[in-house]
From TrEMBL:
Residues 33-245 form the AB hydrolase-1 domain. It comes from Labrys wisconsinensis. Residues 1-24 form the signal peptide. This is Pimeloyl-ACP methyl ester carboxylesterase. The keyword NAD does not apply. InterPro entries: AB_hydrolase_1, AB_hydrolase_fold, Sec-Metab_Biosynth_Hydrolase. It comes from the Bacteria. The keyword Signal applies. Keywords: Signal. Pfam families: Abhydrolase_6.
């Protein structure tokens, strides 16, 4: 074999080994999960889901959104994705669905999971989707804005947001609300992740914040693998086992995509 031929053969072998290494890396199970909370709450509500995922061997990051603007929340989420080891399953609850729709196009994201969340299309915002609720749909008890931020009526918080959560926990959630910036509601998604990444959607059938029919419509539009679970808007708090199991199904499913 000539020197030129030997060099070419050696280079081809190196490329082949590199390609095999890349395929092996891609074949690794997805074991990182990034959890993104929605409006009016913070990341502490994920505690039950977090504990289950950690016990099952997942690396879990909980994003603490400032909920001041969609751009700010996406930036925080992208930093969490960058810091997570390996490929990531990105999970959003409620308004967090808008955040993961925008941030989920990151190359490290293997799949996007919506937990009774806004799976927005390009040009949509949470504000545009909730502007004209259908007749008979429950209307969340959102108080008039103060200094550009929204809150839920504490007296009506449990019934609308967390009807199946233990009363003392629901009361704590009401009293520890995080003001939700109007700029966050009005933030528009540019390129939704569900158009390029496999997606999953958990419908909470007793949700009084995002009507279940709206959830089903968004899930179908996204082509998401969908499951329906009895529960309130805070199903991730009241039934962390079902939510964690669904996230693990997504992680296993993303391995095969």
């Amino acid at each position: 074999m000539s020197n030129v031929a030997a060099t070419i053969a050696s280079a081809a072998l190196a490329v082949g080994v590199s390609a095999l290494g890349s395929l092996a890396a891609d074949a690794q199970p997805v074991k990182s999960v990034v959890l993104v909370h929605g409006g009016f709450v913070d990341g502490s509500g994920w505690d039950g889901v977090y504990q289950i995922l950690k016990k099952d061997g997942y690396d879990v990051t909980i994003v603490q959104n400032p909920t001041t603007s969609l751009a700010d929340d996406v930036a925080v989420t992208r930093r969490a994705i960058a810091a997570a080891p390996g490929k990531v399953i990105l999970v959003g609850h409620s308004y967090g669905g808008a955040v993961v729709s925008e941030a989920g196009t990151d190359p490290k994201v293997a799949g996007v999971v919506y937990i009774t969340a806004f799976a927005l299309d390009a040009g949509e915002s949470v504000a545009s989707l909730i502007a004209n609720p259908p007749p008979g749909a429950p209307v969340p008890p959102i108080l008039p804005p103060v200094d550009g931020f929204l809150m839920l009526d504490k007296a009506k918080f449990a019934a609308s947001f967390a009807a199946d959560v233990r009363p003392e926990v629901a009361a704590f959630m009401a009293d520890s609300q995080v003001p939700w910036g109007i700029a966050a509601l009005e933030g528009k998604v540019t390129v939704p992740a569900w158009k390029s990444k496999p997606s999953w959607y958990l419908v909470a059938t007793d949700d009084h914040m995002i009507p279940p029919p709206a959830q089903r419509t968004m899930a179908k539009r996204a082509g998401a693998t969908t499951v329906e679970v009895p529960g309130s808007h805070a199903v991730y708090v009241s039934n962390p086992g079902a939510v964690a199991s669904f996230i693990e199904q997504a992680a296993a499913g993303a391995d095969k995509k």
